[in-house]
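Lecture notes, continued. The same structure-token format from the folding unit now serves as the input rather than the output. Read the line below as a description of shape only.
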């Protein structure tokens, strides 16, 4: 089945059988690799290392369709998560097929919008929702109240490629601004491909292209964006990316396949809008006009590390915006999300998560 004609989670008979075999082999794979985990120095605990091992196993051994079947969809994940936490189901339908899902009560004084990752193929996961909820709850405990938290439900590959995700985010931002949210009180969190989508929005705000997304009229800069392990380069040759001994949640062949599949239907003339590292010098020179603060983070052990650092130092740091880069030692792609893999109220978090919370606290208290 060609990617153009494929449907989300549509598997062939061969893929169905293969997925069953993969499931049967998972316990044996875990058992065989357990000694390696037990002997490896762990900063976050053995249980977490086992989770990361299983994530890497599944990303290597399954197709995108198989993973979509395993992971389900964003709507059901959101609804189950909300019911589990005793929150109302608050869904706002947007034009162009997107949705805003509110995590908890709808509050529009100050709003954080989460744009989840997943290589443009996969839905939001509980750990992403848990992480955002943890950030908000920690902010509340520190005295920062009245912060609304919303999730962007955007369309996924193989049915939706660039620039659909950009368009849906632009529509969501426009909806929030039209509802009375001041730009300075709007914040965006994105991990991986979600962070890429946020950068797409920033690019289109700075260099408007109405063929890609509707114009978002900003009367002032938005409050800030947090880019967690952003996807900035689709095919890399950097040392961190080609390192055969890298301890990350996926390998370079897998992630390159996701990225190039997403970009395959977009003309190269638009590459600056969807591959951030390819932009010409000065592309983000006026960043402070549309965004006041930017926090970027990466894991020291993740494949994207070198490309993220280069992107930040070349394109974001030289601007007048308040920019900050954090590299978490001994961590992988999207590492803060795994702090909340089992719970939205973890007893222990990594070194980066408190930095993220403090960054939001400082930004929100200035408003």
């Amino acid at each position: 089945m060609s990617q153009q004609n494929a449907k989300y989670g549509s598997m062939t008979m061969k893929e169905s059988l293969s997925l069953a075999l993969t499931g049967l082999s998972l316990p044996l794979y875990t058992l065989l690799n357990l000694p390696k985990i037990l002997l490896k120095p762990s900063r976050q605990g053995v249980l977490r290392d086992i989770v990361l091992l299983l994530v890497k196993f599944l990303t290597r051994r399954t197709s995108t369709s198989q993973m979509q079947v395993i992971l389900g969809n964003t709507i059901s994940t959101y609804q189950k998560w909300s019911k589990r936490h005793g929150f109302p189901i608050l869904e706002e339908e947007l034009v162009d097929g997107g949705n805003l899902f509110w995590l908890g009560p709808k509050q529009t004084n100050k709003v954080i919008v989460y744009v989840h990752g997943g290589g443009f193929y996969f839905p939001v996961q509980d750990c992403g929702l848990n992480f955002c909820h943890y950030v908000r709850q920690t902010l509340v405990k520190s005295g920062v109240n009245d912060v609304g938290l919303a999730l962007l439900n955007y369309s996924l590959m193989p049915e939706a490629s660039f620039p659909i995700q950009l368009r849906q985010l632009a529509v969501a931002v426009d909806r929030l601004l039209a509802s009375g949210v001041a730009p300075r009180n709007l914040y965006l969190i994105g991990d991986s491909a979600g962070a890429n989508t946020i950068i797409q929005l920033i690019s289109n705000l700075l260099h408007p292209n109405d063929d890609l997304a509707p114009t978002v009229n900003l009367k002032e800069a938005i409050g800030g964006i947090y880019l967690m392990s952003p996807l900035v380069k689709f095919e890399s040759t950097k040392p961190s990316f080609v390192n055969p001994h890298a301890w990350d949640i996926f390998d370079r062949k897998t992630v390159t396949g996701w990225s190039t599949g997403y970009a395959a239907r977009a003309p190269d003339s638009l590459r600056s809008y969807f591959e951030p590292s390819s932009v010409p010098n000065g592309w983000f020179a006026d960043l402070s006009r549309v965004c006041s603060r930017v926090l970027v983070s990466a894991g020291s052990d993740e494949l994207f590390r070198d490309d993220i650092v280069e992107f930040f130092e070349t394109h974001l740091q030289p601007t007048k915006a308040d920019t900050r880069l954090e590299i978490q030692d001994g961590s992988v792609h999207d590492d803060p999300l795994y702090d909340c893999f089992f719970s939205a109220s973890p007893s222990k978090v990594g070194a980066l998560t408190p930095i993220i919370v403090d960054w939001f606290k400082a930004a929100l208290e200035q408003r």
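Point for the exam: Residues 72-365 form a domain with the Rossmann fold fold (CATH 3.40.50.1820).
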